[in-house]
Amino acid sequence: MTRIRTAIFTFAWFGALGAPASTQELPEYQHPFPGGYPALSSGPGAGQMYMESYFPPPVTASPTYPAWSPDGATVAFAYMGRIWTIPVEGGIAQQATSGPGYHSQPSWSPDGRYIAYAADIDLNFDLFVLDRQTGESRRITSDPALDLRPRWSPDGSRILFTTGRSGNFDLWVHDVGSDASEPLIADSSQDMAGDWVGDDIVFVSRRGAAALGSGSLWRWDAETGEAELLVRIETNYQAAPVVAPHGGAVAYVTDASGTNDLYVVPSRRGSSGIQPIRLTHTTDTDEYFPSWSPDGERLVYAKNGGTPNHLRTTDGGMGFALYTVGRGGGRPKLIPIEDYAWSEPMGVVRVRVVDTDGDPLPARIYMTAADGRSYFPEGSFPRVVSVTEDYYFHTDGSFSVTLPPGEAELEAWRGFEYEPVSREVDVRAGEWTTVEVQLERWTNMASRGWYSGDNHIHPNYGGHYDITPEDLRAKARAEDLNVANGTIANYWGNSRVEDLEHFLGHPHPHPDPQTVVYYNEEYRPGYFAHMSLLNLTELITPFYIGSRGTATQELYPDNAAVLRRVHDQGGIGGYVHPYGLRHRDPIAAGAGSARELPIDAALGLADFVDVACIWSDELGTAAVWYKLLNTGSRIPATAGTDAMTDIWRHPAVGTTRSYVYTGEPVLDYDEWADAMAAGHAFVTSGPILTFDVSGRRMGEEVQVDVGDRVAVSVTAQSLFVMDRLEIVHNGQVIHAVDATGDRKTIEAALDLDVESSGWIAARVLGPPQHGAMDSYLFAHTNPVFVIADGQPIRSADDAAFFVDWIDQMIDEIDERNDWNDPDHKAQVLATFREARGVYQAQVGGR
């Protein structure tokens, strides 16, 4: 490692990240991530993350999306990415479809000969029709956009479906005779999930200025082309309305009662305002995907929580089971599935994941069969990460999975400190194969007093599975994550607050002190920006403000007032998923997500900022963070994945994490939180960093005289390939070292002559890659502050930047007229002006 000598200058940095001191040309690190459905709708109120999370059908390892056959004898459903059928009374399920991709959302033709379904093949959902007489499937749509949820017309001549072809979800029809598709209901209102009422359509739409949720139920008149509201609901893309065979009623799903239940409402014109009837009344499970019996007397649906003979899995919940219930409610009846009869002979692989002592070890698993598809243990929770489109699941150390014969690939991962292991497995039809995988640490950060944590995890966020505190702990252990901060919050566009019942005001008791689960809170105001509130003894209410058109539309209290309440109870609070503004001016773009961050940083109220998060841009957030540091703030960088652990298309907990130094042999949450707020940490989506300046650790201070020299030393080690290690001073890259060899270790050392006060940090960049679940590989140390001649760190240019930022916010606040009390507006403006004064004092007479 060569030691370089250079000088620290006072840089006048504005918006730029600094020119790398290297000749290697790096790729453009993309954000949002280069993954997910490329043609997913992006219309008003959509949001790609939420659309991907809730609307497209997930691959499941238990039965979902049931559809009752026209003769009343059979139910079709989706399982393991295939369509299956089973007698209504239960028994052995028969595989109905095969071929590439993952199949779901079956819909019977009126004569019972055909089943239409949606198939996800290479990130493109198209519609297929299975001929049950021949067993052959035929593609009927082919478009880069998503085509979903086919529904046969009553006469069998047309198939209604939801599509994103216009860049906005619309309802189209496919003519069976001509094999052509055309729009039916198409505007900018996110019209989706339709079903037939004769020639009319019942569907979900955001039209009518719905304040919350993904849309309400509407009926479209085929003669007039007009739509009328049937019932207002909030449910996030789960309504799934289905019209009864007689056409007079529509069943749908809503979480109005606190969990997802089935409801029925009249579907006739002029029915708006009629009270719906609730059919299911569970308080600890959810019901989804209703389908009517042909006589209209019962509905079949899928319920999470599994069946009595299922064991709870590491991934949470017990999968789904199929039930029926009467059209007026009553006692549900289970459809028991005794076994699954695959269309070809299959083999079974039993896997044990162990540590170097031979003890079971929780882990993340990737399992790809010889047919190129991913497979999962029955009853488990299959998940996929969009950045690489890798399907995965978690295990407690042992599992069995049914696979087609041939060579399968098994991978086991566990966080960032274990070497992953890949094994090829010869699967033989009709046989059991046993495999043992041993994972070994390449480093042990906890043994050196460093403990990893994730500040932003939603155990439940409107997904299909119910995640308990023990499920969250199991996921954290499988990812080798020491601290899992569950954040209680209302979920997107909805007034329902998840996980309230799990708040204790302290970590959940457990005999393993090295894995801490603590349910805290994400405070979600619509304008000021979201914050994680940690180490709480009491929850902060209201949970959200600023939702126009609701009782919470007033922008009061501001985040500063909330942070003071958090500090009064000994907690800490900071900003989450802050910015994706690397190539835009944050002021012109509305200050991004974390609007109030500069205000609370100036007032010393914000305790951290999640520089590393999968839903914001690390480099874009770092650009604003650097400006805050340049104006004297010592707000530390932290990491919060914003993982939603009950949703199928989401990364794992700890995808981004903070490694916090407490120096203690046993993890203590209070010490961990205090050390994180003091900046004794680095953030990462993979690389492990060591860093010091003249013997001082991250978050500490070096007192020197002008002209003195400081020594900088940094090492980056990683499971993943890295592109570059960079040393940053006052927002400028002053030295960079390109990765060479296997690109998994980079070192740098500098001797720096000090000319003024400033800060020094290091960061690592790398490409997106398998096993890492962020947009690109990223790690960043917190700074060491170098104070020369006792002078504070100041930047008039960056202070002026934040003066302009706050002026814009003051103007926006001043223009709002939805205040409940004029004093509330005055209090908010006074806080903003106080912070503005802090920055204006630095601008001086510039």
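^ that was protein a. below is b, sequence first then the tokens
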Amino acid sequence: QAHLDRIIIRGDGAEGEGGRSVRCLPVEGESARVLRLAPWSDEDGDVGGDSPESGPGAIVELSDGTLLEYNAGDVDGDGEGESPRLSPSEAEPLLEPCPWIAALRRPDRFLAPSGSSSDEHPHDSHHDHHHHHDSKRVVVGLSSRSRLYLSDRLLSPSSSSFAISPFHSFLAHVTIGSRSQLRHLPLSALASYDPLSGSEGDAALLGEGYEPRDVERGSRLVAVLPSSPSAVLQMARGNLEGVYPRALVLPHVMTLLDRGEYGPAVEIMRRQKVDLNLAVDIDPTKFLDGGGVDALIDRVRAVDRLNLFLSNLTDEDITRWKYRVPGWLRLKSGGGDRYDGAGAGAATDFDFTAKVNRVCSATRDAMLKAERAGETSSGRAVKSGHFLLPILSTFAKERPPRLEDALSLIRENALAAAAGGGSKHKSPLLSDKCQSSIQYLAFLADYPLLFDTALGMYDFDLAKAVARNSPQMDPKVYLPLLKKLRGLGESAGRYEVDVRLGRYESALKNLVRMGEEEEEGAAGDDNPAAAVFEGEEKKEGASSDDEKHFERCLAFLRTHKLHCLGLELYDSSQPDRRRRVAVSLGQRLLGEGKGEAALSVFLALDPPDLESAKGAARMCGDWRAYFFACSSASSSGDGEDEEGGGGSREGRRRAIAAEIAEEIASSGKAAPGDGVAGGMPPPSSDELHRRGASAAARILLDYADDVDGAVDMLVKAEAWSEGRRIAVLRSREDLARKVSDGAAAAAERYLEDMITKADAFEESNARYGDVVKLRRRVV
């Protein structure tokens, strides 16, 4: 193109400048004059491979609209090779002569395949594709009437200027009118542009969510820079301004990310306020498993950029709704077509609900690996602790946050720095680097939460280092607290911390461990529980210290319902205490109305707690278990007079049986599982009462020897066969007749009920027929 500035093409020939040898290239025709000469926009080798044409060239437009191609041939003038020539262009002519033109010499490097174009625009004809997609040349022109053309197609009816950027694969132009805008059309979509649908509609279609940028009225497009996604505009008053349109920024960033160039991509996204989730979402599988994480930490050198990236992570796919990958964007991994408008997750089946945790874990592992090796994947040297703040970000960003791991890392780095020659006059946790790390972590999580986390680690020095930087925490509050905790024994201090933080399971473990420490010899002033339970020591005089401590543990697990953990802590080596914990569990279940579970607990003890079992059995209506407990208590000699008043044992048993039978019959409760088949629906209230009456009859017959009462209950339960069987078995003809009379009365009652229901059905059926006939007449 240095040759072109020394050639002047006229209607009657050409002349040279600077003493160079110039050949004459005449233009045929008397009235034809050269209107415009423009070099090929894609002449630079960076935008596409080797050209089959030899030498530089240009597109020439004549005043009558004819398009010619100029080929410089042998530009050195050594007498060898091709001579410069003008030849008719293969490009379609513009609809009208255009003083401003630009052309693509090899548009096939930018145009989309015909299959994809036809899929996106089914209304395009085969003729359209033949002219534009299969053509070797594409010419865009702006007429003196501000009309922008692509060969014979109208792209915009009112534009002030335009530019083709092969580097960004865009045609950019500035519209004029009531609203001036900088608009962009992808070069790959120009072949399928349909003028019949209207340029405004096609602009929105080709933009795919990349909105035009409003500019000052009278602005003109000067250039689109190839090295960055920016355009230079000249304002109406003459000054030049550089802008970064979203339509240029997003495809440029996506292309950089697809190539693995995370350094410049992250920098552009930061400056242009592009969501940094795009670095992952454009291809999450490649980022996590294809070396993307290693490339990120290697090429993003500033740790604050890594912190920004990690702090902005969210569990969603922004390519679905925020930054859709355009179908015309050509990426190494397959381009926008692989997303089909559904986002990266649909293309890779990636689970975005766990994206943040997976990215944080992978990034943290890569940074720790680089620190251990002393270099990144490309060999860039890194010092130990270089990635401390980004690693803290990964811990704080995970759900749930891993603040304990973050504080442990800060402590380890502080101790390692002190061991390497740090100041010996102050604690390593008070060093400047440690304090700055804590302050950064507090930016991601509140100080009170960090303080409680440090307390939960039982590291009181670390808790002090956290609290001293917090404007929310008063030294008059946390310093006495930390002093008190340091003064207690290990288990006592941990118990206090766990209770403060609501970690009651851990508190119970430490409370039990305090008792073990007492048994090992701690007493008096050295007793670890003395300072914790100082107010209780004076109230419990007679009991031994060991027994008093167990009562504290029992009361604690009762308060916080930790009986299951208590059974684990008091194993078979302490049978008496284990039994008391189990009895407390059964009593809690009774208080919650869970009689069956309480009954199982009481009967599982060795020996069983029969008195408590009887109360649980009566609550759940398990009369079999109740009488089993009564029989077991009687055989062991316990509890003979606890149920009922005076009299013989047989009389008391009958009275209890009658009482329980009445309870079960009136409440409808039967023993769990009585008459209930697995998987069956719950019985009705009538069915429950019948089952209760049957169970009451069995109780009266087996434990009260009351045949009359048993038969009455069976009559209530409508168990006619069973009632008659028992009456005949006991040779009671009067009871047999009573059962037969009851059965006959029930049968008569059922028959009358059936007749009443049948009459009601016939009446309703007749009324329904009348209604149907009426509706048919109306319709």
